[in-house]
Specification:
The protein contains four helices and eight strands; from the N terminus they run ααββαββββαββ. The protein is of the alpha/beta class and 188 residues long. The longest helix has 23 residues, at 30-52.
């Protein structure tokens, strides 16, 4: 069984291929092509998600909302064809497929396919840092040690490490140094 990030990437890639094939040999054009692309991409993604994760909830832009998902811990969020109008216009490449998973309301895995550009972006497999040898160390500025650091160190049975080098990088004085990193990286 694939991991969540692999499933998101697989579903987005499969829908991307379907949409490209449909666009190459459209049985109809204009709005009809967009409606068919939305419907077929949605059906494929939902089929893949339900086969792999039958107990997860799903919220899709192209399906009627299922209130049962509100009680689920894991909910897939799908936009099977973002940019339907652009998809219908020959030569446009600014349309996408989005597949994401929220666990307990927080993002857990996601994939975005840009079919016309041949690109797929997805969250990587979760990485766990190796456990450190010995006690944890908390690096704190020697000249400006926050009082909180000693309390946190005591609570974690960690060792405060006072350093003159522990200071914020430029431009981090007024903002949080732990801002989020990008969640999407190119899929292999």
């Amino acid at each position: 069984m694939p991991e969540d990030h692999q499933l998101a990437a697989h579903a987005a890639a499969a829908a991307a291929r379907l949409l490209l094939d449909l666009r190459r040999c459209p049985p109809e054009g204009g709005k009809a092509l967009g409606a068919r692309g939305d419907a077929e991409s949605n059906a494929l993604i939902l089929e893949l998600l339900r086969a792999a994760r039958p107990n997860d909830g799903i919220l899709s832009e192209e399906s009627a909302p299922d209130p049962a998902r509100l009680g689920e811990r894991r909910v897939w969020i799908v936009d099977p064809l973002d940019g339907t109008r652009e998809y219908c216009e020959p030569g446009r490449d600014d349309w996408a497929v989005h597949v994401a998973l929220a666990v307990d309301g927080a993002p857990a895995a996601s994939a975005v396919a840009l079919p016309a550009l041949g690109e797929l972006f997805s969250t990587p497999a979760p990485l766990l840092a190796a456990a450190p040898e010995g006690r944890l160390k908390i690096l704190v500025s020697r000249s400006r040690p926050p009082a909180l650091a000693e309390r946190v160190a005591a609570r974690l049975d960690a060792e405060p490490s006072w350093s003159r080098w522990a200071r914020p990088a430029p431009r981090q004085w007024r903002c949080c140094a732990a801002r989020p990193t990008p969640i999407c990286t190119p899929a292999a």
